[in-house]
C-alpha cells in the first residue's frame, strides 16, 4: 500500500491534525512518508506564489522536503468552495495532474498521506468531486468524524457514499472537536455499531494538538485491508494505470 486518503465529515473536523498524526505514527515505525493536499482554497500569496497552511504543515512533516507544487498542485487564494475558487481563477482542476503529482511523491517515499478538501462529496468542477481522487489514485480512505452533535448522520451518509460507490473505507477516526460534547461515549458506541470498518483511534479535545502527541491515540496498524478490499483496490489501480497509459500513448507488455 502506497498511501491513504483522509476525508472527513466536514470542513474543520480535524483532517489536517489527523493526517499529520498518521504521518508521525507511520514514521515512528520506520517507513518514510510524504503528505499531499491536492486541492486547497484559502491560500496566502508569498514570494513563491500561493501557499496553503495545511499543505505547508503536511510538507514540513514529510520525511523529505518535496516541491510545494507536488504537495499542493491546485492552490486558490479565497477561502471558499474549491470549484468556485477554481472557476473564479479560470482554472480547471484535472485528475491527471493530481495523479502525476501523487505518483512522483509515491516514488520518493514509502507512503503518501493525502488530505482531501472539505468533505467527501465536495465538487471540484462540473464533473469532478473529491470522492473521485482516491478512486483515481487507488487509495483506501480514512474517515475523520468530527465529534459534535449531528456527527452520526454526517458519518453514516459519508460511509454509505464511500462504500456504495466502490471506495474502500480502511477505517475511521473519531476526533473530539467540541470539548463540551454531551454523551460522547454513547455517540462513539453508536458509530462503532453502525460503521462497517475499524475505528483507528479516538482523539480527545487537546489544548494544542501536535503530531507526536496524536501518535498515542492512533492505531494505523488496525487498517482494514481484507482480501476483498485489496482486490477492489487492485482493480481500481489497474484501471487507473490503463487510463494514464492511454493518455501518454504507453503500452504494456
Ligand atoms: N482533537 C482536537 N482538539 C483540539 N483542537 C483540535 C482537535 N482536532 C482539531 N483541532 C483544531 O480544530 C481546527 C480544525 O482542525 P483541522 O485544521 O485539522 O481540520 P480540517 O478538517 O483539516 O479543516 P479543513 O477543512 O480546513 O482542511 C484546528 O484549529 C485544529 O487545531
Ligand atoms: Mg485541513
Automatic annotation (TrEMBL):
Write out the catalytic residues in the record: 37
For this protein, what is any one GO molecular function term?
A: ATP binding
Q: In which pathway does it act?
A: Cofactor biosynthesis; biotin biosynthesis; biotin from 7,8-diaminononanoate: step 1/2
A GO biological-process term: biotin biosynthetic process
Q: Tell me where in or outside the cell this protein is found.
A: Cytoplasm
* Gene Ontology annotations for the cellular component aspect, listed alphabetically: cytosol
Renumbered residue ranges of the record's region Disordered: 233-253
Q: Which residues form a coiled coil?
A: none
Question: What's this protein's family per the entry?
Answer: Belongs to the dethiobiotin synthetase family.
PANTHER family assigned? DETHIOBIOTIN SYNTHETASE
Query: Its function?
Result: Catalyzes a mechanistically unusual reaction, the ATP-dependent insertion of CO2 between the N7 and N8 nitrogen atoms of 7,8-diaminopelargonic acid (DAPA, also called 7,8-diammoniononanoate) to form a ureido ring.
What is the name attached to this protein's record?
Answer: ATP-dependent dethiobiotin synthetase BioD
Identify the coding gene.
bioD
Amino acid at each position: 500500500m502506497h498511501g491513504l486518503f483522509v476525508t472527513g465529515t466536514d470542513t474543520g473536523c480535524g483532517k489536517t491534525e489527523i493526517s499529520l498524526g498518521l504521518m508521525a505514527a507511520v514514521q515512528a515505525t520506520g517507513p518514510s512518508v510524504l503528505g499531499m493536499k491536492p486541492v486547497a482554497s484559502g491560500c496566502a500569496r508569498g514570494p513563491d506564489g500561493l501557499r496553503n497552511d495545511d499543505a505547508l504543515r503536511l510538507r514540513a512533516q514529510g520525511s523529505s522536503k518535496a516541491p510545494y507544487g507536488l504537495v499542493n498542485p491546485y492552490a486558490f487564494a479565497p477561502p471558499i468552495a474549491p470549484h468556485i475558487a477554481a472557476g473564479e481563477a479560470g482554472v480547471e482542476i484535472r485528475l491527471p495532474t493530481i495523479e502525476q503529482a501523487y505518483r512522483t511523491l509515491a516514488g520518493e517515499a514509502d507512503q503518501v498521506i493525502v488530505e482531501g478538501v472539505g468533505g467527501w462529496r465536495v465538487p471540484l468542477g462540473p464533473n469532478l468531486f473529491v470522492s473521485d481522487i482516491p478512486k483515481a489514485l487507488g487509495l483506501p480512505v480514512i474517515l475523520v468524524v468530527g465529534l459534535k452533535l449531528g456527527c452520526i448522520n454526517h458519518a453514516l451518509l459519508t460511509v454509505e457514499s464511500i462504500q456504495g460507490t466502490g471506495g474502500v473505507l480502511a477505517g475511521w477516526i473519531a476526533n473530539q472537536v467540541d470539548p463540551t460534547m454531551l454523551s460522547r461515549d454513547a455517540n462513539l458506541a453508536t458509530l462503532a455499531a453502525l460503521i462497517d470498518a475499524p475505528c483507528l483511534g479516538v482523539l480527545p479535545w487537546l489544548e494544542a494538538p501536535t503530531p507526536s502527541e496524536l501518535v498515542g491515540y492512533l492505531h494505523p496498524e488496525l487498517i482494514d485491508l481484507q482480501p476483498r478490499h485489496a482486490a477492489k483496490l487492485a482493480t481500481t489501480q489497474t484501471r487507473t494505470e490503463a487510463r494514464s497509459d492511454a493518455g501518454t500513448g504507453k503500452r504494456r507488455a
